[in-house]
Structure formats: structure tokens, C-alpha cells
Amino acid sequence: MKFVIGNDHGGIDLVDAVKEELEALGHDVMWVGTKDKESTDYPDWAKLACEKVIDKEADYAILICGTGVGMSISANKIKGIRAACCSEPYSARMGRQHNNANCLCIGARVIGNELCKMIVREFANSDFQGGRHQRRVDKIKKLEEN
Ligand code: RB5
Question: In what order do the strands lie in the sheet with 83-85?
Fold first, then answer.
């Protein structure tokens, strides 16, 4: 699968961990985030990375800021993006299985490298279960249209 990583200055410390884990799992990784600690605005990076998913250049986006919150709020404003902000692996798995999340948001000021890798692994290894969950995801899509 193809993943795109987007990050602001607050998220930079986890970029290598995310990239390493995805590559170890055999995925292609594109990185569109900021490369240094100079202050930038997370909605800009969320937009840039999520557009790669919308344009089908990537299957999933992984967004990293200080808390993951700003990135998830921003990403969820973009039509077609379902972003899950996760600080433990269970929610990352359920985000894929139940919510068909196509975007994972992580806080580099919240979790460390190893927990981050577990979350990324769980997200990448889990598939949408469909069934009753499809009906609910369809209702999310309807919310976007209103
Ligand atoms: C930047 O200081 C910080 O606000 C940002 O990385 C993120 O945590 C926002 O939600």
C-alpha cells in the first residue's frame, strides 16, 4: 500500500519512526511534511497530505502534530477523509475495521517511538470489515453532503 506522511514542526520527532515501521511492513512511503522545527500551521500539512489520498496518489495518510488533534480536526474537514486520532493500538485497529479510516493522526508530544510504531502497525495491518459498518460509513458520507 502507499502511505503519505504529513507533519508540522510539533510532529517531526515521530516521522522517522512512522516511516521505518511502514517500510519494514513493505509499504511505499511518501513524506510531504515540514523537515525542520520552524513553526508552521498544521492545516496546511493536513491539506497537502490528504489531497494525495483524495487524488489516489496514496491509499492512506498519517498525520503527525504535537497532539494529533489539530491534524485530525483539519483532515476531517476534507471531503472523503476519515481521520482517526489515536494514542493506542486498539483505536487504530478499530478505526480501520469499523470506521474505514483512511487517515491516522498521532501526537508526537503524547506518545513515544515504540508505541507509535505499534499504532502504525495496527492501522496498516487492519482491514475494513464492511457489513453494518458500511451502513454507518455511508451515513458519514451523507453528513459531508449536507
Ligand atoms: C503546535 O505548537 C501544535 O499546536 C500543533 O502541533 C498541534 O499539536 C495542534 O493540534
Answer: 28-31, 2-7, 60-65, 103-107, 83-85
